[in-house]
Amino acid sequence: MTQPRRAWQRMLSGRRLDLLDPSPIDIEIEDIAHGLAFVARWNGQTQGDQAFSVAEHSLVVEDIFARMAPGNGGPARWRLAALLHDAPEYVIGDMISPFKSALGLDYRAFEARLEAAVHQRFGLPTAPPATIKLRIKRADRACAWLEATQLAGFSEAEASKFFGRPRFAGWEAFRLHPRSPSDARAAFLARFEALARATS
């Protein structure tokens, strides 16, 4: 009799996350921050001695998301949603968009289940309003343009073709500086804690 295949991953916190049916109870922000700090954007194909991590990308996206809204960037819970927009990648890694398309709907459904569990764990709606999701997507694409041109060797014309030129206040002066995983993890956790306090 064959044993069923293991479908969970053990995290550094000791949690065992079921990858097929993720439970919010098994999700810890420390695990997310640690994982994202060690996942490289662009499959590591960036300039410099250190990769630009998904943790750093998430911090930039949250900053851009806030700049796209009047005042202080809107309610803190939506800024928290922006910070956590790539949280599933602490388990599944950062797959480039062409590969996601090649894998098809099953991958996206898996990613959506994990994202819903993350949102539940931290008191966010499993499905944020469409306007918020759209603004997060716009901030994500603006960050991708900055990464493409500053770190991944794209020309501005090529990056604009794939991601669109950024449209947020002060984008021209925005500079990206890859950090060590430990620094990226600490910055991500600090930002999470500040936003979590603001939402409580």
Beta strand %: under 5%
Give the CA-CA distance, first to last residue.
50 Å
Shape, per Cα inertia axes: globular
Low-pLDDT stretches are none
Overall number of strands: 2
Task: Specify the biggest β-sheet.
Answer: 2 strands, antiparallel
What does this structure look like?
By secondary structure, the protein is mainly alpha-helical. It is 54% helix and 3% strand. It has helices spanning 29-37, 54-67, 76-83, 89-92, 97-103, 105-121, 130-150, 156-163, 181-199; strands at residues 8-10, 16-18. The radius of gyration is 17 Å and the shape is globular. The termini are far apart.
Features of the shown structure:
single chain; 200 residues; mainly alpha; two-stranded antiparallel ribbon; 9 helices; 2 strands
Task: Give me the secondary-structure topology.
Blueprint: E1 8-10, E2 16-18, H1 29-37, H2 54-67, H3 76-83, H4 89-92, H5 97-103, H6 105-121, H7 130-150, H8 156-163, H9 181-199
Helix pairs in contact: 1-9, 2-3, 2-7, 2-9, 3-9, 7-8
What's the gist of this structure?
By secondary structure, this protein is mainly α.
